[in-house]
C-alpha cells in the first residue's frame, strides 16, 4: 500500500524513463552531427554536395529516430537535428543539388 501511495515527482520536462535506449541515442547523435555538418556546410556555395547529402541522410535518420523515440528528451533533440538537416539539405539543393556538376 505504501508503494502505491508513493508518487514519482517529475521535476523536468526532459526526464527520462530510467531505461537505456542505445538505438535511439545513436540515432539522436547521428542526426545531430549530420544536421550540424549540413547546416554549416550549406553556408558555403561550393560545398553543396556535402550539405545536400548530409542533410538528406540526417532527415532520414531523424525521421526514423522520431518514429522509435521513447522519451521527450530524444524527441526534442531529434527535432533540432531534423531542422538543421532540413535547412542544410534545402540550401544544398538550391546551390547545386545532390549531383550538381558531377553527373553531366
Features:
104 residues, mainly alpha, 66% helix, 0% strand
Largest sheet: none
SSE sequence, one letter per element: HHHH
The percentage helix is 55-70%
Number of strands: 0
- CA-CA gap between termini: 73 Å
Radius of gyration: 18 Å
Q: Quote the average pLDDT.
A: 87
Structural class, by secondary structure, is mainly alpha
User: Count of helical segments?
Assistant: 4
Contiguous low-pLDDT stretches (5 residues minimum) are none
Shape: elongated
Percent strand: under 5%
Say what oligomer this is.
single chain
Quick summary of this structure?
With 104 residues, the chain is an all-alpha fold. The chain has helices at residues 2-5, 22-41, 48-68, 72-95. The model has no long low-confidence stretch (mean pLDDT 87).
Report on the structure:
The chain is mainly α and 104 residues long. It has four helices and no strands. The chain is elongated, with a radius of gyration of 18 Å. The termini are far apart.
SSE blueprint and pairings:
Elements: H1 2-5, H2 22-41, H3 48-68, H4 72-95
Amino acid at each position: 500500500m505504501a508503494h502505491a501511495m508513493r508518487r514519482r515527482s517529475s521535476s523536468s520536462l526532459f526526464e527520462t524513463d530510467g531505461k537505456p535506449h542505445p538505438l535511439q541515442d545513436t540515432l539522436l547523435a547521428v542526426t545531430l552531427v549530420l544536421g550540424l555538418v549540413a547546416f554549416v556546410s550549406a553556408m558555403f556555395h561550393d560545398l553543396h554536395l556535402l550539405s545536400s547529402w548530409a542533410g538528406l541522410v540526417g532527415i532520414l535518420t531523424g525521421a526514423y529516430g522520431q518514429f522509435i523515440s521513447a522519451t521527450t528528451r530524444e524527441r526534442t533533440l531529434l527535432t533540432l537535428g531534423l531542422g538543421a538537416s532540413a535547412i542544410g539539405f534545402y540550401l544544398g539543393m538550391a546551390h547545386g543539388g545532390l549531383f550538381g556538376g558531377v553527373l553531366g
